[in-house]
What we know:
The complex is a heterodimer of chains A (about 300) and B (about 300). With about 300 residues, chain A is an alpha/beta fold. Chain A has helices at about 10-15, 100-105, 145-150, 195-200, 240-250, 305-310, and strands spanning about 25-35, 45-50, 60-65, 75-80, 80-85, 90-95, 110-120, 130-135, 155-165, 180-185, 190, 230-235, 260, 280, 285-290, 295. Chain A has two domains: about 25-120, Beta Barrel (Elongation Factor Tu (Ef-tu), domain 3), CATH 2.40.30; about 130-265, Nucleotide-binding domain of ferredoxin-NADP reductase (FNR) module (Rossmann fold). In chain A, about 15% of the residues lie in helices and about 25% in strands. In chain A, helix 5 (about 240-250) packs antiparallel against helix 6. Chain B has helices spanning about 80-90, 110-120, 145-160, 175-185, 225-235, 250-260, 270, 275-290, 305-310; strands at about 10, 15, 20-25, 45, 65, 70, 100-105, 125-130, 165-170, 190, 195-200, 200, 205-210, 215-220, 240-245, 265. In chain B, helix 2 (about 110-120) runs parallel beside helix 3 (about 145-160) and helix 4 (about 175-185) crosses helix 5 (about 225-235). The longest helix of chain B has 15 residues, at about 275-290. At the A-B interface, helix 1, strand 14 and helix 6 of A face strand 5, strand 6, helix 1 and helix 7 of B.
Amino acid sequence: MSTAVERTSSSSVEGPGLDSPSPSGGGQGRGLVVERSVPMAGAVELVVYHPPPAVAVAPGQFFQLAVSAPHTILRRPYSAAWSDPAGGLIGFIFNVVGAGSAWLSTRNEGHELDLLGPLGRGFDLEGDRPAVCVAGGLGIAVFPGVVQALIARGRSIIVLQGARTAAQLLPASRFAGADVQVATDDGSAGHRGSAVDLLSNLSFAHGTNLPPPDGTNLPPPLRGRVGVGGCDILTCGPTPMLTALIDAAWRHEIPLAAIQVALETPMGCGIGTCLGCAAPRAGGGYILTCQDGPCVRADRIDWDRMTDAFHG
Amino acid sequence: MVERLDLSVDLGRGLRLRSPVMAASGTFGYGFDAPQVDRAALGAIVSKGTTAQSREGNAPIRIAETPSGMLNAIGLQNPGVEHVVRVYAPEWATWDLPVIVNVAGDSVEEYVAVARCLDGVTGIAGLELNISCPNVQRGLQFGVDPGLAAEVTRAVRAVTKLPLLVKLTPNVTDIVVVARAVEDAGADAVSAINTYVGMAIDVRQRRPGLSRGTGGLSGPAIKPLALNAVWQVAAEVRIPVIGVGGIMTPDDALEFLLAGAAAVQLGTVNYVRPQAAREVHDGIAGYLREHGMADLRALPIRFSSVLTHA
């Protein structure tokens, strides 16, 4: 069957504007859990061996994991936290939010997993500007692989990680080579507040806002970069955090096109057929998280309607 | 031992399928996604519900999982019939898999307009009249009223030579009455059933699980209900009945075929197990072989023989 036709789900409804053709859907196959660990309080990390030929996973892409919990039917979408194509390994970091994730959290070494993927679009990692990764809560789960890939591209990286409390932070050792700053709601580690606060502290680096006195209070990756085009922001987290970030971006005159968001919406199929994972598109209509995302430029989203749907 | 199995199905007006396993409307897009599915196992694809103009669909949240089922309120997001004719149909014409276009509308005039656009277009094998979408205003008005169901069927019948299926809603007191009405109005086959209207509430956020409030329930949760509907309808109409509703396994499909369905449509399972069409197809073939049957015609259980058991 040809797949060379314009996209079915949203092509003419959407109109033009998709940056590039959606990658074709990944295959379905069986993986073997080779390691289970607790990377931070309340979360589980599964390392899955996906037999060769190993598929390349772009950072930010996701898999649909089948679950066998009683009375559940749909697969669960999870971003790959990281991947090692040479070793055929994929890491998933998640917390328990319902029956499906509870079942997944009980998978252990030697258990099989039914994976569909990799699916969707990952982050666009091209460019040479410093990259700032802003994560709230479990949103941090997508970033180990992202940071690894950015470092491989020689880019300067700041990770701004927010969590409720210190124990729920993914250790900075998972982001070797990046400048990691943390914030906690209870002040038990780092800044008391959110990762978006940390971003606001950095925002003058964009040079479009009031310039800092001399730039010396910038972290090393940004030092000397003031006013030379700013940086790229990659983010993932709960909708209230994302909308706070967008507000901060407006305040600090950070162009939304410089921000990429890994969206999280309810999802049915993950392959573009059920149209269940709609997210409000800037200018009207909807994008599909599974095909147009999950990683999209923030200027593609209508944030007012996003708030209504997933926050309000 | 049966030498050659014939799994083909005749849905009337020249619409012959190589396999009784179809992809249900709304669960397979327009056939261009889901490369994971083994299309050789399919007899036909039924497209997403298509309207005269493009539609954006409902605001999210559009889906919610419920026990052994899922609710959806997509709201007929589709690119409109002209796009289907201009862009998709030429591709379909190159496939060896019939594509049936699911036709939706707000008025008899809209159904007729869409059907007119599709009539005679190469690559389109048939129409499935969607008088049963619970997720748009007036989506159900034709399906719950036998008179209106007949009126829209008759009007569409008059403007198309294509095989005409009518997809029935179970949200009625007596589905048989509606099935008879559309049969008399010229339907070549009926698909039974579309989703049941349902609801979920997010107790933490204290709001409906779907932004529209209600949605259509599909999946294994509705299978016994769908099976009963098919059983009732198949006993009362002469045209083929296509069984739809919660089929996940070969045995599920066989239940529908035994109940009198000429073919089945897989829906929600397409989201979960891309290999389901192949499994169901092969499972039906294996069952026929095991029972020494050469084709599907001997499958339906005679109504009277069952009544003796009752």
